[in-house]
Write a structure and sequence with these properties.
alpha+beta; Alpha-Beta Plaits; 20 strands
Length: about 350
């Protein structure tokens, strides 16, 4: 699951990460975090900072273990003792009863650094077989009749580890740092890197939490790069193929979607948008709208070309807004930090 936050201006040496963004990743106030940032490059358009609750030394060998069992006392004990006896270090674990307390789902993040066998080859299959044998008939089955045990490498961390090793990234804090009042601190090296990328200009950032891979991705945008723009659109479920129309329009104009999020739209927001359009059609239900947030970028770095492209895109969506009588509404086109 990806949880995105709004774009904010960078001010000072710290980033603000709201609690609802940090909480799923255990990054409460006082928790230790580890950050890594891309090195700046000409015309990169944006820079990414990754914030993780896991130590850098673990990133090359992190694995996610998912097990579903009958809800029976002692299953967690069996699984935890099996993993620790095999040399796995349990870094995170979440579990919950499901299906009216009939089943129990367990999700773990483990480090395999001390496991004697190669997890990329025989180790992965061996661990899966051990879990099935030790938990026995408590293991539930998938619809295809296979045991509900899933083990996969967290590849995003492996890529980050490789980028650190090949010096495509640098460590924000080699020994980690602590979340303070919802803030993540930027070092002088990180600020210098942003200065090299964007120059002495206004910088904005947008953070998103990836609850599956347990990290926060923070994208930085420079005002003078004329690369990234932001669109917020609400679409009624009654508009059949509405999302397809939006994505096709962006694809045909060779727009790259950097980040997008579709979620239920608060009815009050939809009602207010319809009111501004002065549209009162009985069959339009404000409760049926979805909100689409889009951060997009363009191939060109020429400000005039990109400005014209963005204006054309917004104009086309405005036309669709009129044709659909408010089943699609453009809320917040933002170009170069200004509301459109």
């Amino acid at each position: 699951m990806l949880i995105a936050s709004a774009r904010l201006p960078l001010s000072g040496h710290a980033l603000t990460l709201p609690v609802w963004l940090r909480a799923p990743l255990y990054l409460s106030n006082g928790a230790k975090y580890f950050g890594t940032m891309q090195y700046s490059k000409p015309n990169l358009g944006m820079l990414e900072l990754i914030v993780s609750p896991f130590d850098f030394d673990r990133w090359d060998n992190l694995w996610r273990v998912e097990v579903a069992t009958e809800d029976f006392p002692g299953n967690s004990l069996i699984l935890v003792s099996l993993l620790e006896n095999r040399g796995f270090d349990i870094l995170a674990m979440e579990s919950s009863a499901t299906g009216f307390s009939k089943y129990h789902a367990i999700d773990l993040v483990v480090s395999a650094a001390s496991y004697p066998n190669d997890m990329m080859h025989e180790g992965q299959a061996e661990l899966r077989q051990d879990i099935i044998v030790y938990l026995g008939d408590q293991i539930t089955f998938n619809p295809d009749k296979t045991p509900a045990v899933k083990i996969r490498q967290m590849r995003v961390y492996r890529r980050l580890y490789d980028e650190l090793r090949t010096q495509k990234r640098f460590k924000l804090n080699s020994n980690g740092d602590y979340v303070s009042e919802g803030h993540i601190s930027l070092t002088d090296i990180a600020l210098d890197n942003l200065l090299q990328a964007f120059g002495d200009t206004e910088i904005a950032y947008a953070a998103a939490a990836d609850t599956k891979d347990r990290l926060v991705s923070v994208l930085f945008f420079g005002k003078r790069k004329y690369i990234s723009s932001y669109l917020q659109i609400i679409v009624s479920s009654d508009y059949k193929g509405g999302l397809t129309s939006i994505y096709r329009h962006l694809y045909e104009r060779e727009v790259n979607i950097v980040r997008n999020c579709v979620r239920p739209c608060p009815p009050a927001l939809a009602k207010n948008a319809l009111r501004k359009l002065d549209i009162q059609i009985p069959h339009i239900d404000a409760k049926s709208y979805r909100t689409l947030d889009l951060t997009i970028e363009f191939k060109s770095v020429d400000s005039n070309e990109v400005s014209e492209s963005f204006a054309n895109i917004v104009s086309e969506f405005k036309r669709m807004e009129s044709e659909t009588q408010g089943q699609l509404i453009v809320l917040r086109p933002i170009w170069n930090g200004e509301l459109g």
